[in-house]
Specification:
With about 300 residues, the protein is an alpha/beta fold. About 40% of the residues lie in helices and about 15% in strands. It contains ten helices and 14 strands. Helix 4 links the parallel strand 5 and strand 6 (about 140). The chain starts with a strand and ends with a helix.
């Protein structure tokens, strides 16, 4: 892979930070968007700005060879929040790339985009995909499944439950998972011009047939050297939990009705037909090893 200057959004988040580290390790220069002051880093040019500030995006993409658009909204109190973070934000990045003449555009989407009628989140990610597809750029989109790894604050709750010996998971369903390190390698591989142009790519840990909600929970417990009782939570209980979360945390609620609908979908496995060509990328991190290293990182950070 040739060394490049990459313009990145979302570099301060979980997935984006992992991509940033992988990019620097590979010898790339990174121009990274940030809302807050960041410590100087060799190889990184921090660009103060936001997706709703177009003039800062022009500065972000200046001199870049490719764009990796990671930033997005996973949870929002209303539809407007998803529109602003996912659809409008993506359109703004597309416009900046077009204005700067940067053809290669790697867009991080979600499996939720396959089911836009299921949740507002999925609808907004589908809308973002539509904006990229209509851009005329040399684009490729990656739809990650459940992403885990060091720094992931969402999966942390599962590890904490495993420590108690009792784990609650969504209703019976099947999922694919991927380590953030493997996802980062894929995104960097896709910055090469012309690779998988115009394709939607889905990738996972390579486990045939994927996982069930219960088997992932059991694997997390095993990574903690625990045996846990795993219970599938009925949809009505999750709905009640969302109501209570909204009552106590208001707009900051993490378990929303939108997320309940997403969690209760029976099949969030990738489509094997959309896997990237093996010549481009294959997963390298064995899942149990990845879960164990994730648990160790939580302990080292004092989170477990």
């Amino acid at each position: 892979m040739s060394r490049k200057t990459l313009a990145m959004t979302g570099a301060t988040g979980f997935v984006g930070a992992t991509v940033l580290e992988a990019a620097l390790a590979a010898g790339h220069q990174v121009r990274a968007l940030t809302r807050r002051l960041q410590a100087p880093r060799t190889g990184v040019t921090w660009v103060a700005g936001a997706l709703d500030a177009p003039e800062t995006l022009i500065e972000l993409v200046r001199g870049a060879d490719a764009v990796i658009h990671v930033a997005g909204v996973v949870n929002a109190p209303d539809k407007a929040g998803f529109v602003a973070g996912n659809i409008a934000g993506t359109k703004a990045m597309v416009s900046a790339a077009q204005a700067a003449g940067i053809a290669r555009f790697v867009h991080v989407s979600s499996l939720a985009a396959r089911a836009p009628d299921l949740s507002v989140y999925g609808w907004s990610k589908a809308g973002a995909e539509a904006a990229v597809a209509a851009s005329g750029l040399d684009w490729v989109m990656v739809r990650p499944p459940w992403v885990y790894g060091p720094g992931d604050m969402d999966t942390l709750d599962m590890f904490r439950m495993a420590r108690t010996g009792l784990m609650l998971v969504p209703p019976e369903g099947k999922v694919s998972i991927i380590h953030a390190g493997d996802l980062a390698r894929l995104l960097l591989a896709l910055t090469e011009p012309g690779v998988a142009t115009g394709q939607r790519v889905e990738a996972d840990d390579g486990v045939a047939g994927g996982w069930t909600n219960r088997s992932v929970a059991a694997a997390i417990a095993a990574a903690m050297d625990k045996r846990a009782l795993v219970f599938s939570t009925p949809r009505p209980i999750l709905r009640l939990g969302a109501q209570l979360d909204r009552l106590f945390r208001g707009a900051k609620a993490k378990l929303t009705q939108d997320r309940v609908r997403y969690f209760c979908h029976p099949d969030w496995r990738i489509d094997p037909n959309l896997r990237p060509d093996a010549a481009i990328w294959t997963p390298e991190i064995e899942t149990m090893a990845g879960l164990k290293s994730t648990a160790q990182s939580y302990r080292a950070a004092g989170l477990l």
